[in-house]
């Protein structure tokens, strides 16, 4: 197995029948035929199963390696599943058999049973894959039948077993007598399949090889007297044929060489095997050396595996029609529905011809980054004689030049030194080149050829209709969605780490392509024919779930980080990179190990800066709820106790702000007067029903466009709004009316004043002021726009201040400055003294001022500062008003004050109701086997998760659990669940909704039962309080927390300093 | 060789003294360290965790207890606990190490939060995260001043950060409508204040949409109001011109 010349490989590439696509290029002489093996090695860790997916797609066959001691691991199952999904044929290698001998000290008989068990396990996995597929197909068929049967009513009897019996699965399983299993110990250099021994013993014992082949594995034994091979070894307590003829020999060899170090016996064995052992090896102090010297000649592992690969795995020519159809039919589309021209391509696939006229079809399964220096054209080559001579000439000339320069002007030297062009910057950027990892399925690919790049959403029917007949990629192409053109700059043969440049690559081969990084992100289909459909996307076993926020160590290196993350995104099939609204750069990876590799790649290759990864910021929402009916220990709250609670709240409020500008009445109505006493406003906060909140959240876009229409209408312009939008708005209104029913919400929808925050959020302001009619937000629907004109003109001018105050209040709530959600603020009273209103007013100007105040008044955590601001504003206003009372300036602060007052009123009204925090929730789907179900529940419970339902997947022993989990608890969840279940459960997290956390962050025990249950301090974990304090601490807000818990337990300072 | 000798000075350890002058007399109480601020903020509710003893002193370090007569005369009561509470609430004290530390830390965070809220990365129009700003503040060795308001300090920080990293205040997007007559003249005056003019439409009125630094807003507002005598108008389209939503690479 030596390195072969490039020419030979090129020659071999032309013969697809002798090509096996499996990675590191190896070439073997096997019989008379020469084979080309493209062997792709893939990593074993779960996190990198995406790499497996990319490799599996390009292959026709796979070697599955199983450890003889550990048996079938979760990853083995995953790998088998992937091979199954991609329709590729696996062969099995059971490795590390030496561990059975040396570590576990099994006898040959025990080892046989052990191996048998492993084989059964592997076959069980394949079997369950097969049954689930059959059942699925059957279920589908049945569904179709049922639909047909619906019209007639025949009482059909369904027999579930029929489907399984009909389907043939004999080819599916691994069995040594089928020749698709190799037993090996790679470390000692041996490996064998049954065939090899069958041949050896057929000569020695005079039994036909075919008979031996069938009986060498299984419950057969050799009857020495009768010279017959009989069945039922186990029942009669005899040694199986496999044990007697195969394992015993190996065992005795190990015994002689390693355990007893019996020189004589070793010699005997060596001569009987006909193996030559070098004197140096036999004298070596480590017996392993001798062992591998003998074994590698007796039963070379390479030959065993390679001959199995060549015989059992299909060549590109034998690609199953089923696989082709599966590749070509994206999503749920059936193959027979594809355009005719596309269906014709199937022939090209099956023929796998590399003729000039065959359409070239290439699939790129991943992009990988290569150091530009490592590319063949940039690599240093040994120089030819001519080149050396040329260089010498050049150097001589340069030397001569320098001499003359030195003589003429020494002062010029300085300049010439500084003139050296500064271009390393440019070079550094080009350090990484992306190479596409691809396979040619049909046709001949040439260097520099132009091809179509088909995106995953490309539709061949659409493409064919838009492109002229017989159009090729080199022509100018009209705009077709998801189709682009590019040329393959160079083609490479992938030789492990090395790249060899090629001129052309025929069908059935794996190759590397340079020059696609502009148009291919991660994977793509390339073709010369526009009729080719894009291949089905890769199915990834692991989806990215571990989220971290990434930051550069030095803030000035931000652009480098962004560029690096872009490169990483392209190079890694399973990593996702996104920028969140908060400005965080989030990297999503498949697991902790994958994350570690991504970070290392970023640090060392793509960004080349120091970075730090941290927990991403978790968003929360604030809301109010109806007063609870029961207390924390589920005791009904009596009337008296209820009063006590309200009393307490009230006391707190009045104690905190016993000022004359603020009044809170027991029902939760808050009245705020602005500092110069010109206006008062009364607000009440009401919780919105859950459905309404959901509806508002869903229709964010709609409300935004509604707001735009309103704004332009207010300015007297007319805008063209599509009829559909108007209908949608009317629909939204109707839905709201439907949901908001009951006495409390009478006529509420008509009275909606504004939505917030940012004018389109899931909260609204309600106009409950008696006698104040204003245009409702729905006025663009064209109803009642005349009615809106009536009303107090005095207060209308301040309308915008109220809205701005509301927007500010909803943008950041009093609990931890997070946006509000599902809260309705109802303005119940609003008086403005007319003297506060100047004569000529411009409502537009009013608008602008309100915003200015909005910009300047940052939401203060402590109300004290904001009242100070108000105070100064009021002071200014009065000072200014004195000299010229009617000047246009004087109204300015009033609107500003009103904003502050409105905001304050909203916050107070919010605080007067029972407040709650809302947490973002993930829905989480977990696939787990029955044995680890309990541990999955354990992890979920620890992280405040809730199981919605679980069900068993038909035909397998897998359970599917659906649960919800707070985003705040999700950091490290995937990893923990994997660890606890030894990889047998894999969660998938998707953001689903906001959920109210039921515990009150400000809760303290009030009733007697609660005192009994929680104690006086109630310091048992209050989840909501924990979240709230974490957010407040992050934002630098005041956290009600003691600096030291126990005064007496502080460190005593020394007496004498 | 050490012989135990009584020292002539007794230092108080782990005692925080709160003093108050009332009625021309000085009163002191002995408290535990790092507790008084918590009491004032309402986080500590147990008085015994704050006071070392309920007695009121004239001088804590000398151990001189205040006379009962003086107490009743100045406070109007002889309930020592009540008097202690009054002194605790209004007296002056030296802030202890941990108290000061936590106060400065809170302010530091607050400043970083304000900066992160107000600023964007000019290249991407996206905000920076608070933790990044915090690190940048540490890099430029910014020290928090306890006496100045956090907002004031935040503006100071923004100015200093501009020297080391790509940062600027998020622009406001404004729409100006100016009457045709003054339009041209006013535009010249406004020009230096506007950062970017996004669109300009001159028919009957001059209508402009532009990005400005929030610091200039008042100036622009003033200018338009005075020059056009209330006929021109100004409207804020967005307070912060930032990218919204998530972006996938």
From TrEMBL, chain A:
Any one Gene Ontology cellular component term annotated for this protein: cytosol
Region (Disordered): 138-157, 397-427, 838-884
PROSITE patterns: G_TR_2
Bias-annotated ranges (Polar residues): 859-878
Molecular function as annotated in GO: GTP binding; GTPase activity; ribosome binding
Keywords: GTP-binding, Hydrolase, Nucleotide-binding, Ribosome biogenesis
Keyword Transport in annotation: no
Keyword Hydrolase: yes
Tr-type G domain location: 1-317
Pfam families listed in its UniProt record: EFG_C, EFG_III, EFL1, GTP_EFTU
One Gene Ontology biological process: cytosolic ribosome assembly
InterPro entries: EFG_II, EFG_III/V, EFG_V-like, EFL1, P-loop_NTPase, Ribosomal_Su5_D2-typ_SF, Ribsml_uS5_D2-typ_fold_subgr, T_Tr_GTP-bd_dom
Biased composition (Basic and acidic residues): 412-423
Domain of life where this protein originates: Eukaryota
Protein name: Elongation factor-like 1
Native source organism of the sequence: Dicentrarchus labrax (European seabass)
Encoding gene, per UniProt annotation: efl1
UniProtKB/TrEMBL annotation, chain B:
Gene3D superfamilies to which the protein is assigned, alphabetical: 3.30.70.240, Ribosome maturation protein SBDS, N-terminal domain, SBDS protein C-terminal domain, subdomain 1
UniProt cross-references to Pfam families, sorted A to Z: SBDS_C, SBDS_domain_II, SBDS_N
Domain Ribosome maturation protein SDO1/SBDS C-terminal: start-end pairs: 172-239
Record-linked InterPro entries: Ribosome_mat_SBDS_CS (IPR018023), Ribosome_mat_SBDS_N_sf (IPR036786), Sdo1/SBDS (IPR002140), Sdo1/SBDS-like (IPR039100), SDO1/SBDS_C (IPR046928), SDO1/SBDS_central (IPR018978), Sdo1/SBDS_central_sf (IPR037188), SDO1/SBDS_N (IPR019783)
Domain named Ribosome maturation protein SDO1/SBDS N-terminal: residues: 14-100
Localization of this protein: Cytoplasm, Cytoskeleton, Spindle; Nucleus, Nucleolus; Nucleus, Nucleoplasm
Any GO CC annotation of this UniProt entry: nucleolus
Keywords annotated in UniProt: Cytoplasm, Cytoskeleton, Nucleus, Ribosome biogenesis
GO BP annotations, alphabetical order: cytosolic ribosome assembly
Domain Ribosome maturation protein SDO1/SBDS central: 109-170
Quaternary assembly: Associates with the 60S ribosomal subunit.
Function of the protein: Required for the assembly of mature ribosomes and ribosome biogenesis. Together with EFL1, triggers the GTP-dependent release of EIF6 from 60S pre-ribosomes in the cytoplasm, thereby activating ribosomes for translation competence by allowing 80S ribosome assembly and facilitating EIF6 recycling to the nucleus, where it is required for 60S rRNA processing and nuclear export. Required for normal levels of protein synthesis. May play a role in cellular stress resistance. May play a role in cellular response to DNA damage. May play a role in cell proliferation.
Similarity comment text for this entry: Belongs to the SDO1/SBDS family.
Protein name as catalogued: Ribosome maturation protein SBDS
Record lineage: Eukaryota, Metazoa, Chordata, Craniata, Vertebrata
Designated gene of the protein: sbds
């Amino acid at each position: 197995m030596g390195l072969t010349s490039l020419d030979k490989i090129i020659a071999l590439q032309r013969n697809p029948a002798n090509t096996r696509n499996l990675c590191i290029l190896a070439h073997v002489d096997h019989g008379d035929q020469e084979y080309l093996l493209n062997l792709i090695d893939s990593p074993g860790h779960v996190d990198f199963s995406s790499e497996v997916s990319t490799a599996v797609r390009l292959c026709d066959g796979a070697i599955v390696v199983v450890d003889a001691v550990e048996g079938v691991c979760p990853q083995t199952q995953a790998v088998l599943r992937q091979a199954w999904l991609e329709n590729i044929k696996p062969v099995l290698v059971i490795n590390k058999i030496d561990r059975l001998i040396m570590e576990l000290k099994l006898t040959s008989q025990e080892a046989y049973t052990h191996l048998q068990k492993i084989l059964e396990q592997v076959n069980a996995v394949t079997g369950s894959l097969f049954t689930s597929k059959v059942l699925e197909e059957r279920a589908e068929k049945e569904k179709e039948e049922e639909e047909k049967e619906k019209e007639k009513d025949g009482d059909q009897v369904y027999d579930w077993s029929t489907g399984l019996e009909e389907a043939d699965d004999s080819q599916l399983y691994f069995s040594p007598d089928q020749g698709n299993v190799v037993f090996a110990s790679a470390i000692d250099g041996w490996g064998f399949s049954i065939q090899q021994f069958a041949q050896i013993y057929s000569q020695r014992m005079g039994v036909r090889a075919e008979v031996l082949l069938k009986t060498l594995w299984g419950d057969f034994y050799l009857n020495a007297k009768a010279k017959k091979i009989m069945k039922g070894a186990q029942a009669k307590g005899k040694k199986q044929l496999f044990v007697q003829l195969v394992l015993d020999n190996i065992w005795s060899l190990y015994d002689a060489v390693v355990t007893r170090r019996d020189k004589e016996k070793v010699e005997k064995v060596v001569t009987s095997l006909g193996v030559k052992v070098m004197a140096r090896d036999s004298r070596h102090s480590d017996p392993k050396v001798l062992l591998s010297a003998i074994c590698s000649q007796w039963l070379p592992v390479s030959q065993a595996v390679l001959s199995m690969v060549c015989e059992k795995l299909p060549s590109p020519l034998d690609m199953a029609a089923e696989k082709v159809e599966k590749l070509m039919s994206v999503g749920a589309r059936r193959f027979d529905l594809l355009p005719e021209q596309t269906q014709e391509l199937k022939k090209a696939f099956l023929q796998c011809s590399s003729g000039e006229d065959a359409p070239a079809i290439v699939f790129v399964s991943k992009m990988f980054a290569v150091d530009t220096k490592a590319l063949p054209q940039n690599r240093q080559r040994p120089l030819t004689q001519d080149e050396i001579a040329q260089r010498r000439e050049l150097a001589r000339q340069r030397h001569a030049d320098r001499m003359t320069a030195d003589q003429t002007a020494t002062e010029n030297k300085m300049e010439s030194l500084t003139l050296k062009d500064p271009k390393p910057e440019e070079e550094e950027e080009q350090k990484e080149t992306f190479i596409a990892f691809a396979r040619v399925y049909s046709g001949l690919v040439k260097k520099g050829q132009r091809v179509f790049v088909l995106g995953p959403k490309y539709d061949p029917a659409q493409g064919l209709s838009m492109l002229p007949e017989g159009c090729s990629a080199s022509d100018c192409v009209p705009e077709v969605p998801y189709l682009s053109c590019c040329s393959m700059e160079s083609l490479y043969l992938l030789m492990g780490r090395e790249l060899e440049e090629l001129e052309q690559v025929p069908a059935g081969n794996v190759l590397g392509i340079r020059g696609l990084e502009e148009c291919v992100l991660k994977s793509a289909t390339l073709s010369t024919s526009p009729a080719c459909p894009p291949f089905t996307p890769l199915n990834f076993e692991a989806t990215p779930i571990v989220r971290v926020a990434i930051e550069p160590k030095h803030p000035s290196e931000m652009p480098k980080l962004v560029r690096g993350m872009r490169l990483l995104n392209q190079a890694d099939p399973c990593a996702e990179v996104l920028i969140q609204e908060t400005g965080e750069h989030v990297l999503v990876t498949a697991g902790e190990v994958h994350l570690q590799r991504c970070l290392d790649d970023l640090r060392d290759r793509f960004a080349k800066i120091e970075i730090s990864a941290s927990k991403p910021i978790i968003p929360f929402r604030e809301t109010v709820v109806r007063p609870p009916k029961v207390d924390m220990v589920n005791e009904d709250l009596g009337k008296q106790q209820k009063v006590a609670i309200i009393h307490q709240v009230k006391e707190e409020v009045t104690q905190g702000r016993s000022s004359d500008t603020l009044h809170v009445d027991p029902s939760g109505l808050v009245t705020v007067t602005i500092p110069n006493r010109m206006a008062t406003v009364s607000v009440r906060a009401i919780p919105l029903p859950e459905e309404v909140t959901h509806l508002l959240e869903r229709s964010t876009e709609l409300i935004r466009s509604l707001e735009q229409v309103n704004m332009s209408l207010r300015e007297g312009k007319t805008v063209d709004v599509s009829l559909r939008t108007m209908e949608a708005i009317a629909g939204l209104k109707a839905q709201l009316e439907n949901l908001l029913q009951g006495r409390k919400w009478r006529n509420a929808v008509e009275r909606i004043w504004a939505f917030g925050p940012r004018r389109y959020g899931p909260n609204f302001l309600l106009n409950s002021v008696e006698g104040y009619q204003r245009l409702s937000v729905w006025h663009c629907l064209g109803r009642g726009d005349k009615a809106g004109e009536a009303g107090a003109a005095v207060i209308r001018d301040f309308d915008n201040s109220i809205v701005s105050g509301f927007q500010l209040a909803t943008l950041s709530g009093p609990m931890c400055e997070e946006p509000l959600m599902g809260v309705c603020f109802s303005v119940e009273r609003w008086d403005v003294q007319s003297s506060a209103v100047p004569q000529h007013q411009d409502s537009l100007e009013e608008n602008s001022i309100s915003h200015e105040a909005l910009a300047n008044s940052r939401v203060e955590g402590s109300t004290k500062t904001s009242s100070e601001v108000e105070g100064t504003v009021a002071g200014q206003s009065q000072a200014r008003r004195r000299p010229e009372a009617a000047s246009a300036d004087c109204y300015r602060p009033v609107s500003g004050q009103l904003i502050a007052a409105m905001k304050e009123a909203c916050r107070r009204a919010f605080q007067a109701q029972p407040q709650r925090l809302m947490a973002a929730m993930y829905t989480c789907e977990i696939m787990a086997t029955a044995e680890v179900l309990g541990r999955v529940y354990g992890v979920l419970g620890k992280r405040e998760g809730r199981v919605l339902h679980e069900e068993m997947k038909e035909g397998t022993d897998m359970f599917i659990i659906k649960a919800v989990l707070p985003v705040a608890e999700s950091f490290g969840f995937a990893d923990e669940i994997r660890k606890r279940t030894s990889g047998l459960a894999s969660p998938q997290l998707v953001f689903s909704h906001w959920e109210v956390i039921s515990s009150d962050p400000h809760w303290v025990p009030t009733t007697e039962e609660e005192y009994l249950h929680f104690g006086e301090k109630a310091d048992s974990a209050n989840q909501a309080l924990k979240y709230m304090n974490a957010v407040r601490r992050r934002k630098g807000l005041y956290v009600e927390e003691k600096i030291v818990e126990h005064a007496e337990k502080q460190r005593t300072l020394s007496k004498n300093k | 060789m050490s012989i135990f000798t009584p020292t002539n000075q007794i230092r108080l350890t782990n005692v925080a003294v709160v003093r108050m002058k009332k009625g021309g007399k000085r009163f002191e109480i002995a408290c535990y360290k790092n507790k008084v601020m918590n009491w004032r903020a309402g986080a500590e509710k147990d008085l015994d965790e704050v006071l070392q003893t309920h007695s009121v002193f004239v001088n804590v370090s000398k151990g001189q207890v205040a006379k009962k007569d003086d107490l009743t005369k100045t406070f109007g009561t002889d309930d020592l606990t009540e008097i202690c509470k009054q002194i605790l609430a209004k007296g002056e004290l030296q802030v202890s190490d941990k108290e000061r530390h936590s106060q400065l830390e809170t302010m530091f965070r607050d400043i970083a939060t304000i900066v992160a809220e107000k600023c964007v990365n000019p290249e991407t129009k996206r905000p920076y995260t608070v933790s990044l700003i915090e690190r940048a503040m540490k890099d430029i060795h910014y020290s928090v001043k306890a006496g100045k308001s956090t907002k004031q300090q935040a503006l100071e920080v923004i100015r200093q950060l501009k020297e080391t990293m790509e940062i600027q205040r998020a622009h406001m997007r404004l729409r100006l409508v100016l009457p045709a007559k003054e339009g041209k003249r006013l535009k010249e005056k406004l020009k230096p204040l506007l950062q970017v003019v996004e669109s300009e439409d001159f028919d009957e009125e001059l209508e402009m949409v532009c990005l400005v630094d929030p610091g200039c807003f008042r100036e622009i507002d003033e200018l338009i109001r005075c020059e056009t005598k209330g006929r021109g108008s100004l409207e804020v389209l967005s307070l912060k011109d930032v990218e919204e939503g998530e972006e996938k690479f």
